[in-house]
Every structure is written in C-alpha cells, then in structure tokens.
Amino acid sequence: MMKQGIATITMNPALDLTGQLSSVQLGEVNCIREASLRPAGKGVNVSCVLADMKVPVAATGILGDENAQAFNTLCANRTIQDEFLVAPGSTRINVKISADQVTEFNFPGLEFNQSVISQLESTIERLLPDFSLWVMAGSLPACLPRDYYFKLISHLNAHGKKVLFDSSGVPFAEGIKAKPWLIKPNASELSDWAGLTLESPESQMKVARELIQDGITHVVISNGAQGVLWVTATECWQAQPPKVEVISTVGAGDTLVAGIAYGLMKQETPEQILRRATALSACAVTQVGVGVKDYQQVEQISHLIQIKQHI
Predict the structure, then answer these.
(1) Residue 204 is part of which domain span?
(2) Interval 228-263: pLDDT, tens
(3) Please, what sign has the CA dihedral across residues 92, 97, 98, 100?
C-alpha cells in the first residue's frame, strides 16, 4: 500500500556553514557574530520541514563517507527515512554569510562513479511503490551530466509519479524538458532561463503560461518579500506576506516547496496551500536554521497573507 508521504532527492547535498555579522568588509578580518554548521541541500531542507509537520518523508542522495554521519544523525533526530548512499570523500561545505544580504559561497560537489549512481537509481526504484509525490531539488555535482534531472524526472513520470522540481541554470533548463508536474523557480532563476527581465507579475505569468503550454502543470514563482505566484492552465494565484524581521533567507525557498508539497499531498485548494506555504516561508526568514520552530507563529502569519486571484 502506498504511503501518504513524500520522497526527496538531493543530488548535491552540503554542510552549510552559516554566519551573521553587521557588514562585510572586503580585504579585512570580519568577526562572525553567530555561526552554525548543519546538514543541508535543497531536498534535505524540504525533508526537515516536512518532518517537522509530521509528514512521512524519505530522503535520498549521495554523501561523502567522511562526513555522512551528520546527515544520518539529522535523519534519525527528525524521523526522516534515511535512504542516503555514501561514496568515498567528503560532502561539500557551503558558506553563507548574512549581513545586509546573504552572500553564498557554494563549493564543488562530491565526485563519484557510475557504480554509486547505479546504487542511487536502485534505491529510487525500490522507493517507487511507496511514494507518489517526489521532490527533486538543488544543483548537480560536476561528475553528473547536465541533463541528469531530465533522466530522473522522465523515469518518475513514466511510473505515474508527481515531481516537484526546484533547480537553476542548465540543470533546471534540461530538467523542465521532461515536463515535471510542478516547478518552483524564483523570479531571478526564471528570468535567467527566459533570457528576459521578469519583474512584474504579468511578465512572470506570461512565461509561466508558455511553460504550461509545453506540458508542465504547475509553475510556482517565488519573489522574496513580494510573495508567491502560482500559475496553472486555468488559474493564477498571488500571495503577499506581511513584513517580517528578516534574520536569514537561507532555506526560505525550500520551506515554501515543503509547504506546497504538504498541501498537495493533503489535496487542499490552491488558496489553502499558498496561504500556509507562504506563511511557512515568511517564518523561515525570521530564524537561523531550517525547520518549523513555532507552528503557532505560522498560523498567526497565515491569517495575514493577502491572496489575490488573477483572471
């Protein structure tokens, strides 16, 4: 019997070293005020939020055996079904510095061979009967072909699975050719793909509708403080969050994806899904670290979300 849960795939996980300081002085010694080192990667972040919301979730991907323990411990502590594989080496460390804005330094991913890829594909095959909703998120390590997401999405589509896809650059451009069920670019990523500056909701809707005509069912566009746009063939919903104190934007987009996945799993209406997902994302920027720390706060903010339907 199929589980009422969600599976996530993170092809390029990382340990995120995050730090906060008032401002960055280039060429000088900068003293970090607050720091943390935690397992991350877009799919890992999605898994954490879903687990906090009591959703059965399985997480897979490829880790380096030298520092895989941090991810294994995370899965155990968050009650995430740990389906990660290991390869020789270290999972990369990414550095994210929050001052007036978040500056990120993303390092190259783990190198692994075809044998490890085959093991991952066997793991996905084993999980297929148990999960109908799959989240595929993040970048690809350099050792994989740039169209690898196309292969995975096509395989999941062929088995009748619904894929929520969140990537950027060439992996995003190649992956959407497989027509995933839902994609979640931010405004900048969609602009890069389209080769246009897409600042207005109207321009974003136009490009989203073109993607839908090509076979993608849902296009969700995140716009930071300007909210979220959700476009289908027949509807377009816009969610505007209230102003909140921003501490860190790290993981906010992944939290939005988790909220959308949760609502879709529960078969809620677009308005219900957008309201909760946008509130979750708004709460995410008020904290350091990824996860639902105060669901009462999420509920409070959800009532302040402004929802608008475009004709």
Answers:
(1) 6-24+32-310
(2) 999 999 999 999 888 888 777 777 889 999 999 999
(3) negative
The catalytic residue among 16, 52, 166, 254 is 254
Residue 209 has a pLDDT of 94
Instruction: Please report whether residue 13 resides in a domain.
Output: yes
Residue 1 forms part of a structural domain: no
Active-site residue, 254 included: yes
CA distances from 246 to 25, 288, 294, 303 (A): 21, 10, 16, 19
In a domain? residue 221 = yes
For residues 290 and 254, the answer to whether their CB atoms sit within 8 Å is yes
DSSP states of 52-80 as a string? HTT--EEEEEEEETTSTHHHHHHHHHHT-
Chain centroid, CA 180 distance in Å? 14
Long-range pairs of 158-162 with CB within 8 A, sequence gap ≥ 24? 159/128, 160/132, 161/128, 161/131, 161/132, 161/133, 161/134, 162/132, 162/133, 162/134, 162/264
Residue 279 CB neighbours (<10 A): 26
CATH for 265:
3.40.1190.20
Which whole number is the average pLDDT over 9-17?
A: 95
Decide: helix, strand or coil at residue 204. Answer: helix
Q: Number of structural domains, the chain? A: 1
Rounded Cα distance between 98 and 250, Å, is 9
